[in-house]
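This entry is passed on directly below:
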Amino acid sequence: MSIYIKLADFADCQKICDMQRIAFYDILTRYRDYDTNPACETVEVIQNKFRQPFTKYYFIMNGNEKIGAVRIVEIDDNTRRISPLFILPQFQNYGYAQLAMKCIEETYKNISCFTLDTIKQEKKLCYLYEKLGYKKTGREEQLHDNMTIVFYEKNLKNSQL
């Protein structure tokens, strides 16, 4: 099957919300980050984000099946933020997130920088982003005693040399 991203419509907000709840449930139960975890977002929150002129949602597709989603936020003409990106649990650990990230970068090949953040204690997630060339910015935010957010960026112009 081929992994690609497909632009979502406003009518897809409920589907994105449902998928997000499933995808982030495990992390929510582990860290109990009820204020920041995407599993706690309501469909109204996603609809409000969808209405932002600087936001686009995409489904991550495997053939005709929706296996995840990603929100891309325009920071400025040259920078996009990935927040969040998720793969449904039954499709995790097959390399789909890595392929989805490559699709995003290809879709936005005229952009020079991507930013994202993740949970520092989630070593697999940090490894994934670092493997794809994302560098820690040095910025971290401790949300709880056992949960720190670490920030990454990737300069695409330099990484394609």
Summary: The beta strands are 3-7, 55-62, 65-76, 79-87, 113-119, 135-144, 147-155. The domain at 3-159 is CATH 3.40.630.30 (Aminopeptidase). The helical segments are 13-31, 43-51, 96-107, 123-131, 156-159.
